């Protein structure tokens, strides 16, 4: 019985390791770059956490950090787009539907822009990458402003918009560094 219990705990331990990987601990230079970038963001903690949870290499340079931000921006925008579509399925109020349609259109532009940025990044065409990213703040911002009408007490996308705004800024800052 003790053997079964200990082997069960061992299996659970391995499952937890694979399901919840530890964030990468960056080296000193990479952490200095992360600090430089994140101190320019509206929320240092979210920025820092995003890098550490998604770094592929503890010795990432600006190119690696740029790759991380593009990937996370794409994941976040795609997830938010899916969330908006789910909200649209359940929307019964015409005003809410209209606002969500504006958000869905904006986030579709953001998704496409970061997919384009990823393509340009992989081609090492950093100028085109930045041009693709530069249109995303306005497109994403339409999701915030569509709920600024007094009839909407709560924007269901407040936190997602905040995260997207920060990740977009991270992508623009990392992609604009001289090393990229």
Automatic annotation (TrEMBL):
Pfam families: PMEI (PF04043). Transmembrane segments: none annotated. SUPFAM superfamilies: Plant invertase/pectin methylesterase inhibitor. One of its GO terms (molecular function) is pectinesterase inhibitor activity. Residues 29-174 form the Pectinesterase inhibitor domain. The keyword Coiled coil does not apply. Keywords: Disulfide bond, Signal. Residues 1-26 form the signal peptide. Belongs to the PMEI family. PANTHER family: F14J9.2 PROTEIN, PECTINESTERASE INHIBITOR-LIKE. This is Enzyme inhibitor, putative. The lineage of its organism: Eukaryota, Viridiplantae, Streptophyta, Embryophyta, Tracheophyta.
């Amino acid at each position: 019985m003790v053997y079964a219990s200990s082997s069960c705990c061992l299996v659970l331990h391995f499952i937890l390791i694979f399901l919840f990987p530890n964030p990468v601990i960056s080296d000193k230079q990479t952490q200095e770059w992360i600090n430089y970038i994140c101190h320019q963001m509206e929320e240092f903690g979210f920025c820092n956490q995003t890098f550490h949870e998604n770094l592929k290499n503890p010795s990432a340079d600006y190119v690696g950090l740029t790759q991380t931000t593009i990937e996370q921006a794409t994941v976040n925008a795609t997830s938010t787009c899916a969330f908006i579509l789910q909200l649209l399925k359940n929307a019964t109020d015409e005003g809410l539907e209209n606002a969500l349609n504006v958000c869905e259109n904006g986030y579709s532009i953001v998704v496409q822009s970061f997919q384009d940025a990823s393509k340009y990044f992989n081609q090492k065409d950093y100028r085109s990458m930045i041009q693709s990213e530069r249109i995303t703040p306005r497109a994403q911002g339409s999701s915030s402003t569509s709920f600024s009408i007094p009839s909407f007490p709560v924007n269901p996308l407040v936190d997602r918009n905040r995260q997207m705004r920060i990740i977009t800024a991270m992508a623009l800052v990392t992609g604009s560094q001289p090393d990229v």
